[in-house]
Design goal:
Pfam families: ABC_tran. GO terms for molecular function: ATP binding. By secondary structure, the protein is α/β, with parallel strands linked by helices. The protein is 30% helix and 29% strand. It contains ten helices and 14 strands. The two termini are 38 Å apart.
Amino acid sequence: MTQAAISIDNLRKIYKGAGKAPDKLALDGVSFDVPRGQIFGLLGPNGAGKSTLINILSGMVRKTSGSASIWGFDIDANPRNAKASIGIVPQEIVFDPFFTPAEALELQAGLFGVPKAHRRTAELLRAVRLEDKADAYARTLSGGMKRRLLVAKAMVHSPPILVLDEPTAGVDIDLRQQLWDYVRELNRAGVTIVLTTHYLEEAEELCDRIAIINHGRLIANKPTAEMVGMARDKLIVLTLDQDIAALPADPAFDKVSKLTDRMVEIGYSKDRLNAGQVMSRVREAGYGIVDVSTREPDLEDVFLNLTKAVA
């Protein structure tokens, strides 16, 4: 099927201000598609509108205008089918402390109308490595375990789309890796993944495509490799043959920083210079170069440049 997993068209959301407080425009005409079968990154600074968009898809927030469909079902015309097609792992850890993980999954499956014969409680607990905690009270679980339980709850009705809203916030490196291994398994099985994260290295490693939202507007939407290719700024670190009396200066350098008495970091745009030209201009300033290291641009560079440009 070529139809998008999620299709969003000119979506707007205005939160009415209380009393004399001004209205807040949270989403300003956002439009994009999430292709089926991909891991899709949705990035943006705090307050950019990401959670508002996810809450509209989940049915927790009503849009002001525009349209959205999930797995081909319009969220207004076919809300039940739309909600059945998506599982959402919230940013906040929300759970009932008096239910065991097994009971929580059984209850969630019942809310989605999954017949008992088709429930996958044991399978899901095994997948998120909680089978040994199946009958423990949820309040005794660690923060990482509770987050994994939320992932399992989102999958009880076998939705074709899983939305992960900052799923690794505050978890350790080992748990983060376990969670991403499971996400990759789900994706290989055909589940479309939508991911929001502040860990840009994760988005760069995991996502097939990335969209960036800032101030309620979509400012970029490209395949990850193409997005990273947008980075123009590069950094070169030079170890010089003498103490730095005056920083080497050139109109083409974007920034020059002294790291140690003999080490300098120079930022430049690869559209205007290459590393060889940078070093040549440093030599012209009277310095010999003992050692060189460079840093390739990454998603963080693009993210900062794009969000800074529309700040």
